[in-house]
Design goal:
About 45% of the residues lie in helices and about 15% in strands. By secondary structure, the protein is of the alpha/beta class.
Length: about 250
């Protein structure tokens, strides 16, 4: 059974791999045996060092993923470096906070382009590569507890993460018979840059912690088991599923 969770000989493309959830997931996949192609915008040195320390190859890909062409380039660069692609982790995301009545079109477009548009076009490019290779592949989209809830002051983020959940199910419907597994992870409130403002607000942080049955903010490493599982042969009969990693937030 342990072999079902190994990823030896596979290559994973991880977006937003330079920090936070992407960094943690890239390391988890590398420790399970996968080579990593990491898409980043600012820094990638820690990811490279830790993947290579795990004995796996690492390829750095600098793209901001705001358009379909950038998504295609990221997949092409991963394949050029490793010769194949087996796994896509659609993790890159940004957040903007404002009252809904005040949100600008520019902020709306920035969030939707990175969090939703890139998810579709990366998945499309990866699926085309999987089909060209034969043998299928694994796509894991990073959704959110706000795929199920409204939240406050994050209108485009909520819209994008609701869209990620819908896309995950649609792509699973279309591609399951082709041997491509499309699933999602929905993290709860995690200790990342995206939640720094919330954690710095003592009252808001207390409200959030008061609702989490586990009694703590999530750590990026809390996604490690879920992402390895969804990328491994242990999840071969899972299509369109969403695994929540939220400390019990949605169960409350």
């Amino acid at each position: 059974m342990a072999a079902d969770f190994r990823l030896d000989g596979r290559c994973a493309l991880v977006t937003g791999a330079g920090r936070g959830l992407g960094l943690a997931m890239a390391i988890a996949l590398a420790e399970a045996g996968a080579d990593i192609a990491g898409v980043y915008v600012t820094a990638i040195d820690e990811t490279r060092a830790r993947v290579e320390a795990a004995g796996r190859r690492f390829t750095a890909i600098r793209e901001d993923l705001r358009g379909a062409a950038a998504a295609r380039r990221a997949v092409e660069q991963a394949v050029a470096a490793t010769g194949r692609l087996d796994i896509l982790i659609n993790n890159a995301g940004i957040i903007r906070r404002a009252d809904a009545i005040d949100f600008t079109e520019g902020d709306w477009d920035d969030v939707i382009d990175v969090n939703l548009k890139s998810v579709f076009f990366l998945a499309q490019a990866a699926a085309r590569q999987f089909l060209a290779q034969g043998g299928g592949g694994k796509i894991v989209n990073i959704a959110s507890v706000l795929s199920f809830q409204g939240g406050i002051r994050v209108a485009p983020y909520t819209a994008s993460k609701g869209g990620v959940l819908g896309l995950t199910r649609l792509l699973a419907n279309e591609w399951a018979a082709k041997g491509i597994n499309v699933n999602a992870i929905a993290p709860g409130y995690m200790m990342t840059d995206n939640t720094a403002a919330l954690r710095a607000d003592a009252a808001r942080s207390s409200q959030i912690l008061g609702r989490i049955p586990a009694g703590r903010w999530g750590q990026p490493e809390d996604l490690a088991g879920a992402v390895v599982f969804l990328c491994s042969s242990a999840s071969d009969y899972m299509h369109g599923s969403v695994v929540t990693v939220d400390g019990g937030w949605l169960a409350r």
